[in-house]
Automatic annotation (TrEMBL):
Keywords: Membrane, Signal, Transmembrane, Transmembrane helix. Pfam families: Malectin_like. This is Malectin-like carbohydrate-binding domain containing protein. InterPro entries: Malectin-like_Carb-bd_dom. Gene3D superfamilies: Transferase(Phosphotransferase) domain 1. Residues 1-27 form the signal peptide.
Length: 323
């Protein structure tokens, strides 16, 4: 592994710690959640999804049209329960879900599509998605087993929202799941009516292969886990093992403390983004200085500016995961 690669890994480890802690700020309270498993049979079913614990209901109360179908059994085992069934719309150009909501609440609305060769044709369809009367997005697929998710953030002015699938002549529209999550009204504040998702970088799913919330024993949150390690002065077990201990300890301490400050329950104790960037740059500078002094001096790294390394790490490592 060359030095530049080591740096990227080091930085990525720091960013992972930081984002893992920032992304999962609080535990999950499902009040106000609407989780609809489209096409799920029997029609009145209600269940808790086995990996997330989220409570899904069948889509029957929300739509009159379409047919219920099941994806191929061979794909089901590794996927979340809510994609096992789909509702497909072989008839009609436009088919809509109508979901009752609370006026004035900011919602995240997410539609999930996973083909799973439910129709046995092994042909990926393409169709349009509308939010009410507005075009939302075109749904396309790269793979039979990779889900496609579309999200908008919306504050309804009426007591219901409509999500519509439009047949554009390139295959039968279908949908796997529809989820609505009430957001704090301070989340994603915008002067515009709705926001559509451009990209979600799920960079906090795991840390050292450990999920944010351990489901094996009692539900230990990663923040509690990191806190217990820090209390014992055990920084090594928090850092990416592939680094094999080859990092600036002070720098890592600083980064982890920064991450912990970011998840403080008291908002005034949380640093601003520019403070975070400044601190991370300091951490990186300390690491670069250490490298500089070690036998591993590599001019290509020494001449890199911190900004450049940061931007390399951001652009090369922080790609979204399918989940
Ligand atoms: C669903 O409907 C069936 C038959 O109508 C009924 O026997 C069953 O109890 C219902 N289940 C739930 C969870 O409501
Ligand atoms: C939505 O609200 C309308 C009017 O209040 C009501 O008639 C309907 O049953 C509700 N639908 C669902 C699925 O709760
Ligand atoms: C958010 O909601 C609270 C209480 O409902 C209200 O006092 C506050 O002004 C709202 N803030 C925004 C940014 O809409
Ligand atoms: C690394 O060392 C070189 C020369 O030894 C020096 O000019 C440079 O400023 C050092 N860089 C850092 C970040 O300490």
């Amino acid at each position: 592994m060359d030095v530049k690669e080591m740096f990227k890994r080091f930085l990525f480890a720091l960013l992972l710690v930081y984002f893992a802690l920032v992304v999962v700020v609080m535990g999950q309270d499902q009040s106000g959640f609407i989780s609809i498993d489209c096409g799920r049979l029997p029609k009145n079913s209600t269940y808790s999804e086995s990996s997330t614990g989220l409570k899904y209901i069948s889509d029957e109360p929300f739509i009159q049209s379409g047919v219920s179908k099941s994806i191929l059994a061979e794909y089901k085992s590794t996927l979340q329960d809510q994609v096992a069934y789909v509702r497909s719309f072989p008839q009609g150009i436009r088919n809509c879900y109508r979901i009752n909501v609370t006026i004035g609440i900011r919602y995240l609305v997410r539609a999930t599509f996973l083909y799973g060769n439910y129709d046995g044709l092994n042909q990926l369809p393409e169709f349009d998605l509308h939010f009410g009367v507005n075009f939302w997005d075109t749904v396309k697929f790269d793979s039979v087993v990779i889900s496609n998710r579309k999200e908008v953030i919306h504050i309804p002015l009426k007591d219901n929202v409509q999500v519509c699938l439009l047949n554009t002549g390139s295959g039968t529209p279908f949908i796997s799941a529809l989820e609505l999550r009430p957001l704090k009204n301070t989340t994603y504040v915008t002067p515009y009516g709705s926001l559509s998702l451009l990209l979600r970088a799920d960079i906090g799913s795991t840390i050292n292969g450990r999920p944010a919330i351990s489901r094996t024993h009692e539900r230990t949150h990663i923040i509690q886990w990191v806190n217990s390690k820090l209390a014992n002065g055990d920084i090594e077990s928090i850092v990416e093992p592939k680094l094999e201990g080859d990092f600036e300890t002070n720098s890592v301490w600083k980064a982890v403390e920064l991450a912990m400050a970011c998840v403080s329950r008291i908002s005034t104790k949380r640093p601003t983004m520019s403070q975070v960037v400044t601190e991370l740059k300091d951490c990186l500078a300390a690491e670069i200085a250490r490298r500089n002094n070690s036998r591993l001096t590599d001019q290509s790294i020494v001449t890199d500016s911190v900004d450049e390394v940061l931007s390399i790490a951001m652009t090369t490592e922080l790609s979204p995961f399918a989940r």
